[in-house]
Design goal:
Number of helices: 12
Low-confidence stretches: 10-24
Strand content: 5-15%
Helix content: 55-70%
Radius of gyration: 40 Å
Shape: rod-shaped
Order of helices and strands: HHHHHHHHHEHEEHEEHEE
Number of strands: 7
Structural class: alpha+beta
Mean pLDDT: 79
Length: about 400
C-alpha cells in the first residue's frame, strides 16, 4: 500500500459528525469521568475508614439498631469503592450510597441515642457527609450536587442537634461542622463542574476539528473525482470524437472505432480503483512501446526515441503514458505535428523522463482558460497525483512538455 492510498483509507475511516458515536464524541469526557471516579474512590476510602474506625472504637454497647445503621451505609460504601476502582457501574453504586446515607442520616436521632453523646467530638456519620457529596458528583447532575452541597450539611446539623437535645455544647461543635462541610462540599462540586466543563470543551473542539477535516477531505475527494472524470473525457471521449470527425480513410475510421471502444471501456470502469494502477514495476521499454502505438493511432510518422533502462510503478507508468498521449495529441491538434519528437529516457531504478516537443507556433500557458483541461488536468494534475512533475515551455519556436518522476 502506498502512502497516498494509506491516507485515503484513513480519511475513509473518519466518520462524519452524524455518524460519530457517543463513545467517540466524548473521548475526553469519558477519561475525565474515569479520573473523577478514581479520585472519589480514594477520598471516600480515606474518609470512610476514618468513619468506620470511629464507629467501632466508640461503640459502648452492641446495639442492634445502631449496628444495622452502620451496615446500611458501609456496605454501599464498600460497593462504591470497588466500582470506582474497577471503573464499572461507578455512577449506580455512588447513587446507592448517596440514598443509603440520607436514610441513615434521617434515622440517626432514633437509633444513635446511646452512642456519640459527647457534644465536643464529631460522630462517625459526620465523616461521611462529604463522601455523600462526592458520590452525588459521580452519580447525579449538577442541580442535585448543588442542592446536597447546600442542604446536606444543614440536614446533618439538624439531626445532630436533635440527638443532643439542642444542648449548648452540641450547638457550638455542630455549627463549626456545618460550616466546614458546607464550604468543602461547594468546593468539590465546583471542581467537578470545572473538570467536566473542560473535558466537554475539548470534546466539542475535537468534534469541530473532525467535522472540518471531514468536510475538507470530502471536498478534496469531489475535486479529485471531477478532475479525473474531466481528464478522462478529454483524453478518451473527446479524442475519439475528433478522430471520428477527421477520419477520411478506412484505416482512420477503424482507428477511430478502436479509440471510441477504449473510451467507452474507460468510462464504464471509471469508478474502479484499478484505474489508478498498482505498485507493480513496469519496464520503461513497455512505456515507449505504448507511446509508439499512440503515434501510430494518430496517423503521425514519428519515431519514439528510447534511452536508458529501468522500471517504474504501474500507477506511475499509466499516469506518464496518459499525460504523454495528451501532449502528443495537443501537438497534432494545435501544431499539426510539425517537428514532433518523443523521447523516453530511463534512469535505472531512480526514475523516468518523457519529453514531447514540437516546432509549432507555440502558445502562452498563462492564457489558457480554466475550462481547458488538456494541460491542467490531463498533464499537470495527473503527474502531481503520482508524485511526479510536469513542465510546459512554449514560445513562438515551439512547445516542449517534460514529464518526470523520481524514486524518493
Amino acid at each position: 500500500m502506498t502512502a497516498d492510498q494509506g491516507l485515503r483509507d484513513a480519511w475513509e475511516h473518519i466518520p462524519s459528525p452524524g455518524e460519530v458515536g457517543q463513545e467517540l464524541e466524548r473521548f475526553a469526557g469519558r477519561r475525565m469521568e474515569r479520573i473523577i471516579s478514581i479520585v472519589v474512590g480514594v477520598g471516600a476510602l480515606a474518609l470512610g475508614l476514618q468513619a468506620l474506625i470511629n464507629a467501632i472504637t466508640r461503640m459502648r454497647v452492641v446495639d442492634a439498631p445502631h449496628l444495622l445503621t452502620m451496615l446500611l451505609v458501609f456496605l454501599p460504601w464498600l460497593l462504591m469503592l470497588g466500582c470506582c476502582a474497577l471503573g464499572r457501574a461507578a455512577r449506580i453504586s455512588a447513587g446507592i450510597f448517596f440514598v443509603a446515607y440520607i436514610i441513615d442520616l434521617l434515622l440517626w436521632p432514633v437509633v444513635a441515642t446511646r452512642v456519640d453523646l459527647d457534644g465536643t467530638e464529631q460522630p462517625w456519620i459526620f465523616f461521611l457527609v462529604n463522601v455523600a457529596g462526592v458520590a452525588a458528583v459521580v452519580a447525579f447532575p449538577l442541580g442535585v450536587q448543588v442542592a446536597w452541597a447546600l442542604l446536606g450539611p444543614f440536614l446533618y446539623g439538624t439531626v445532630r442537634l436533635m440527638q443532643g437535645g439542642f444542648r449548648s455544647e452540641f450547638v457550638t461543635v455542630t455549627a463549626f461542622d456545618v460550616s466546614f462541610t458546607l464550604i468543602l462540599g461547594l468546593v468539590l462540586v465546583a471542581l467537578g463542574w470545572t473538570f467536566r466543563s473542560v473535558a466537554k470543551g475539548v470534546d466539542d473542539a475535537r468534534g469541530r476539528a473532525v467535522a472540518l477535516y471531514t468536510e475538507a477531505a470530502a471536498a478534496e475527494a469531489v475535486e479529485h473525482e471531477r478532475v479525473a472524470v474531466a481528464a478522462l473525457m478529454h483524453d478518451s471521449v473527446l479524442a475519439a470524437l475528433i478522430a471520428a470527425a477527421r477520419a477520411g480513410t478506412d484505416r482512420e475510421r477503424a482507428l477511430a472505432v478502436d479509440m471510441a471502444r477504449e473510451a467507452l471501456t474507460r468510462l464504464a470502469n471509471a469508478e474502479l480503483p484499478v484505474q489508478e494502477g498498482t505498485d507493480e514495476p513496469v519496464q520503461i521499454e513497455l512505456i515507449a512501446a505504448d507511446l509508439r502505438r499512440t503515434v501510430e493511432q494518430l496517423g503521425v510518422q514519428v519515431d519514439v526515441e528510447h534511452f536508458g533502462h529501468g522500471a517504474v510503478p504501474d500507477r506511475v507508468a499509466r499516469a506518464m503514458a496518459l499525460a504523454a498521449r495528451q501532449a502528443i495529441g495537443n501537438a497534432v491538434a494545435h501544431a499539426s505535428a510539425r517537428g514532433l519528437a518523443v523521447v523516453v529516457e530511463g534512469h535505472g531504478d531512480t526514475g523516468l523522463t518523457v519529453k514531447v516537443s514540437d516546432t509549432g507556433g507555440g502558445f502562452d500557458p498563462a492564457m489558457v482558460g480554466a475550462d481547458r483541461l488538456g494541460i491542467r488536468a490531463s498533464i499537470l494534475a495527473r503527474m502531481t497525483a503520482v508524485g511526479g512533475i510536469a513542465t510546459v515551455d512554449s514560445d513562438r519556436h515551439g512547445t516542449v512538455v517534460t514529464l518526470g518522476w523520481s524514486q524518493s
